[in-house]
TrEMBL record:
Catalytic reaction(s) noted: a hydroperoxide + [thioredoxin]-dithiol = an alcohol + [thioredoxin]-disulfide + H2O
Record keywords, A-Z: Antioxidant, Oxidoreductase, Peroxidase
Protein name (record): Glutathione peroxidase
GO molecular function, one term: thioredoxin-dependent peroxiredoxin activity
Matches recorded under PANTHER family: GLUTATHIONE PEROXIDASE (PTHR11592:SF78)
InterPro entries: Glutathione_peroxidase (IPR000889), GPX_AS (IPR029759), GPX_CS (IPR029760), Thioredoxin-like_sf (IPR036249)
Lineage top rank: taxon: Eukaryota
Pfam family, one: GSHPx
Family the entry assigns: Belongs to the glutathione peroxidase family.
């Protein structure tokens, strides 16, 4: 079968002999330094035959990003694994927390958001971290007791871990790669930064420590519907 590919204002003919096709993408650069994509077709055994006239449009980056969130795992204080695959279809708010920080009262606002929207699918996840001013020095049991007694926290808290540096936990490696902060910097600046992930596993917003939980209520309401 004779096919054509467009190159500028010209059409270049090429021959294909099989309707079961794969796409080979070749990048070229013209003398004018303008690049174009030449799409050629070659035979290849396939269990999913493609029509030569069928349009193909997909974004591998988008597929990877969303599926990546649900492949994450975190360690719970009891040593068990929290599997992010269980969060499919949920709206998720992730916060790095600390018990002796000036922003620690944000626990109250986070719990209020959780109680308000949990029946609509909101999950709040706290990640205790001792990297900022050593403001989370306690054991897992001490952290849990503190949060429960002082702020009535009932949303899940993970085991204490790092959110910056070589020992960053896998969740924060992914989050920071997906959504940079102020001036394009990816590192976490301080306790109680906040990431909001929608029902499709996409990071839709990131807020600094100074942003109170109540200030993000409207954003949660918008995407949780």
């Amino acid at each position: 079968m004779l096919r054509q590919v467009r190159l500028g204002s010209r059409f270049i003919p090429f021959l294909t002999t099989d309707v079961r096709l794969t796409l080979n993408i070749t990048r070229w650069r013209l003398p004018s330094q303008r690049s174009f994509t030449l799409v050629t077709q070659s035979t290849h055994p396939s269990t999913h035959p493609l029509s030569t006239t069928s349009p193909i449009a997909y974004s591998t980056a988008a597929m990877s990003n969303t599926s990546g969130f649900y492949s994450l795992k975190a360690e719970l204080p009891n040593g068990q694994t929290f599997d992010f695959a269980d969060l499919k279809g949920k709206t998720v708010l992730i916060v790095n927390v600390a018990s002796k920080c000036g922003f620690t009262p944000h626990y109250q606002g986070l719990q209020a958001l959780y109680e308000k929207y949990k029946d609509q699918g909101l999950v709040v996840l706290g990640f205790p971290c001792n990297q900022f001013g050593a403001q989370e020095p306690g054991t897992a049991e001490e952290i849990q007791t503190f949060c429960s007694l002082n702020y009535g926290v009932t949303f899940p808290l993970m085991n204490k871990s790092d959110v910056n540096g070589d020992t960053t936990n896998e969740v924060y490696k992914w989050l920071k790669n997906e959504k940079a902060g102020l001036l394009g910097l990816t590192r976490i600046k301080w306790n109680f930064e906040k990431f909001l992930i929608d029902k499709n596993g996409k990071v839709v917003n990131r807020w600094a420590s100074t942003t109170k939980p109540s200030a993000i209520d409207a954003e949660i309401a918008r995407i949780i519907e």
